[in-house]
Amino acid sequence: MGFILTQSLSDYTGSCTVYYMTTVSVRISEEERRELLKYGNLSESLREGLKLYLGKKKSEKLTRRLEALQSLNPVKTSTATDLKLISQDRNR
């Protein structure tokens, strides 16, 4: 997707965001290819899979960091106790 420049750049006073993308080649089996095509365009399916993978890795990293912080300052109550307190607070 792009735009057509109809005036010279010296007349242009707006802003423009430019995104740079990298091309990645992936070797997959014919069976994997057929399976991915069931969900739409091959590139879009692979791109979505990469996003999910990166999100999972980021989540795992944050979970490890949280566990490290929690080990430094252990929680004084259990989850069951917290749920009980919340229920009492909400009169349930």
Task: Report what the structure shows.
- The chain has helices spanning 30-37, 42-72, 79-89.
- With 92 residues, it is mainly alpha-helical.
- The chain has a domain at 29-89.
- The termini are far apart.
Quaternary assembly: single chain
Radius of gyration in whole Å, from Cα? 25 Å
Mean pLDDT level: 84
Give the overall shape, derived from the CA principal axes.
Answer: extended
Strand content: under 5%
Major β-sheet profile: none
Number of helices: 3
Q: Kindly state the percentage of residues in helix.
A: 40-55%
Cα-to-Cα separation, first versus last residue? 54 Å
SSE string: HHH
Low-confidence stretches: none
Features of the shown structure:
3 helices; mainly alpha; 92 residues; single chain
In short:
With about 90 residues, the chain is mostly helical. The chain has a domain at about 30-90. The protein has helices at about 30-35, 40-70, 80-90.
Topology diagram in text:
Layout: H1 30-37, H2 42-72, H3 79-89
